[in-house]
Amino acid sequence: MIDFHAPDVKPPKVNIVSPKKDYNQKEAKYLHNVKKQDEKEKFEKIKLNRNPSGYMTTEEYELLSVPQDRMKMEFDVPKTPTPADMYYVPKPSYKIVKYNNPPGSPELTIYPSLYKNFQQNSQGIVSPDFKRLVYPSIYYYPNSGSTACDVFVIMLDDAQTNKDKILTANTAHRLPEPILSTDKDNYNYYMFRTITPVDFSADGTKILLKEKVGNTRDGMWKTTPFVYDFETETLYDLKAIREAVTYYWRGLKDLNLGDKRWDIYPLGFSQENPDWIVVNAYAYTGEVPVNLGTWTINSLGETPRIISTGDADVNISMNGYKLVKDGVEPPMITKKEEKQLKHVEKAVAKQKKAEDKAEVKELTKSYKAKIKEINTEFKESQADYKLRQKIEGSTEGTDIVERYNEIKKQNAIKKQQQLEKQKAREQKRIERQKQKEQRALEKAKNKNNQETEEETPVEVPNNEPV
């Protein structure tokens, strides 16, 4: 039985789902987002690297680890940092003095830091023409308590003053190979081998060096002089002078110096004959050393001769230079500099902050322009894709390409017309702005003329009252 009073049954709701985008559009959208994300990461990385944190990729590390030519590296003069909140910091001043003064006095000074750092670069000697600096480098071997030494050369910069040449000399600019080296054998305990530059020749082409060998528990053993010629890059051993001293005293006094403790003392180049080296010999007696004579030998290590068996009046040339401290700058000057430093630090910090802000602004502007370019390119590609899809769905046969080209041409014409209209509007705006500025200028000019006329006094005849 049918119930005619039953309520009406509503039909079920049907959700109409719009057709989904095709896979080409999805892929294009995905690639578009990837490209924008890459630009964002690049922008963030450049922004972060304004103050390097030390973190880098393997590729960046390998790029920075490429070997560089040390001779082309530039270094500033070392400066002691002076905080503005300190009242007084003494600043040393320097001067250039003769190195071998008095003759034969140069000796190496071993600092306690050698036994901690295992290496020490001693003070160098500068040639008379200020072209090169020669310095010894000492090495300490803690396993045997022994030392060794190399002598290196640094070519100085010709474009600086003599003092700045020495101050800016850096070990990174040294020539790779030493001109003289001691034996690096460290099996003998407490052996010390050092090389000390004595002096340059008058023309700066040769240098006299002395190698000292001994034992820290037993004392000095022997000193051997050497001469290095920079022009021929040749090292000459002057050991013949030791043999000459031994032979002379054996024949004169039947004294066997091989059984005695004796040594030589290189003084420098002779002033009368610049090609000869003067050496003094002496023997240890436990109290006052005994003079074994003053000797000479040429720079090639040949023809040793005795000048005198006692004290001899020999003129020794002093050709090399060194840098020494010459006191400190006056405190009043330093205090004034510190007061100025506070203002300079504030100005530098302000300028640095402004430059950093401008750099970030420029980076952000460039990033936004790049994103805008990517979005524009994506919109154009999507519009072109939709146009092709529309034409393919409504046109058949070979008319597809012709229809596509016709629509593209019409769109290009419309776009050009829009650009011309926009350009015309911009031109009109510029002209209105110029007219407005011109009117303002004329108004200000008229106002100035009116004020000038009011300030000009009026001449009144003497017979007429004002």
Tally of extended strands? 15
Q: How much beta, percentage-wise?
A: 15-25%
Structural class: alpha+beta
The major sheet is characterized as:
5 strands, antiparallel
First-to-last CA distance: 128 Å
Q: Helices and strands, in N-to-C order?
A: HHEHEEEEHEEEEEHEEEEEHH
- Seen as an oligomer or otherwise, the chain set is single chain
Rounded average pLDDT:
84
Overall 3D form: elongated
Question: Low-confidence spans: pLDDT under 50, at least 5 residues?
Answer: 13-19
As a percent range, the share of helical residues equals 25-40%
| Number of discrete helical segments | 7
Radius of gyration from CA coordinates: 44 Å
Give the helix/strand layout.
Elements lengths: L22 H26 L9 H7 L27 E7 L15 H4 L1 E3 L3 E2 L5 E10 L4 E10 L6 H6 L12 E2 L9 E10 L5 E10 L3 E11 L4 E4 L2 H14 L8 E8 L6 E8 L6 E9 L6 E4 L12 E8 L2 H64 L4 H57 L11
Antiparallel strand pairs: 1-15, 2-4, 3-4, 4-5, 5-6, 7-8, 8-9, 9-10, 11-12, 12-13, 13-14
